[in-house]
Design goal:
alpha/beta, disordered C terminus, 2 domains, 6-stranded mixed beta sheet, FAD/NAD(P)-binding domain, D-Amino Acid Oxidase, Chain A, domain 2, 8 helices, 19 strands, 8-stranded mixed beta sheet
Length: 389
Amino acid sequence: MSTRPHVVVVGAGAFGGWTALTLARRGARVTLVDAWGPGHVRASSGGETRVIRAGYGARAVYTRMAVRALALWRAHDARYGRRLFRHTGALWLAPAPRSAGSGFARDTFATLQSEGVAVRSLTPSEAARMYPALDFSRITTVLLEPDAGYLLARRACEHVVECLIAEGGEYRQAAVASPARLTRSKLQLEGGETIAGDAFVFACGPWMGTLFPEIIGKRVISTRQEVFYIGTPAGDRRFHDDALPVWVELGASLIYAIPGNANRGLKIGDDTSGPVFDPTNGDRQITGSGLKAIRAYLRRRLPALAKAPLVGSEVCQYEATPDSHYIVDRHPSLLNVWLAGGGSGHGFKMGPAIGEIVTAAVLDGVAPDPTFALARLRSPRRAADTKWA
């Protein structure tokens, strides 16, 4: 590479946008390319909000990465005053003492403590006194991550690209040819135009498999995920983010909720992997069965919202690997090409940390953690339900 290498980054979501901005801040010339724009509705990084927390069971690599990512989100907010991070804390709930969920909670508590991350174990009665809007019936394990919260997802993607442009980077709204057509120095766009570069980073979310069918293919599968926005009573702050934390319930299904949610009502969804989904042309209407299941959950856990109106909904997708670990690795035959994806429904929060990892790999030759190596995915299969929010 030259002393000021030109790096082309494909994908302006959480992974790609932060990678482009971090590369530019390290002195690279950067061109960021996206087919529909940062935080667009088809993207895994689209939508209004995402949970940020450090609890990952025994998988300390993600806890450390989340801690670093949160520090970078806070630094970004301090610099720009955008309040992209909303500090609410996060609750982990498990209903059965010998369930997989309770085991995950125990591992989470131990890992957070060993990594020096603030965490409290609450009894259900203590939690009920702190958060009276929630019904803690049949809950046996409650953990509180006091430093956690949620992020404004779409707004963050847009602002990161604005920062990139302001700091000398280039953004182009264009589609790359699929499957990817590139040489050591050129990438082809749809229509035949090419972009020259010294290095290329592909952070294409659910399109990674179609861009690289031979080396990725079905090792990254898009799954259909329904999200619901429940209207809260006018002027009632019991369900606002200054009165309730985000929470994750580790039951038969993994349910997550975000109070406040950028003033769009209580956001709630089932994290269990849905059916395989086409992120480009798939139908994004919710199903009656999905709404029915959420209504049943509200009756049990937030009885005051049992009959509250549905004020919005969306269908997003997870781009999931079989083990729900990310892919951050060099292309096996094009050594100046890097792949960053497989967010698996828990990647958005990590954007700033992924940006650092990819930048170190591209500019300094620092190998990413082997957890994210492409070689581990030797046999394609459907994404596993790992019950991570």
